Automatic annotation (TrEMBL):
Residues 4-45 form the SpoVT-AbrB domain. This is SpoVT-AbrB domain-containing protein. GO terms for molecular function: DNA binding. SMART domains: SpoVT_AbrB. It comes from the Archaea.
Length: 76
């Protein structure tokens, strides 16, 4: 675990090893007990393509399956 401290102007500098691993852009999410930094990819669309490269169904097929699952769960 690493530590970071705000400077006099309220800026937070992340340690070099964190920046090298996760990048330099983050979403800040407020939680009930703290905050969470979520890295933003330099090429978000490219990251999605890589993440879902092995998915063989179309978006419509995925959407239809999710809708059917939700209807089944609701007691169709």
């Amino acid at each position: 675990m690493s530590e970071a401290t705000l400077d006099g102007r309220g800026r937070l500098t992340l340690p070099k090893e964190i920046r090298e691993r996760y990048g330099e852009h983050y979403h800040i999410v407020q939680l009930h007990d703290g905050i969470k930094l979520i890295p933003i990819e330099d090429d978000p669309l490219g990251a999605l393509r890589t993440e879902f490269a092995d998915v063989e169904k179309t978006a419509e097929e995925l959407r239809r399956g999710a809708r059917n699952a939700a209807l089944d769960e609701a007691g169709r």
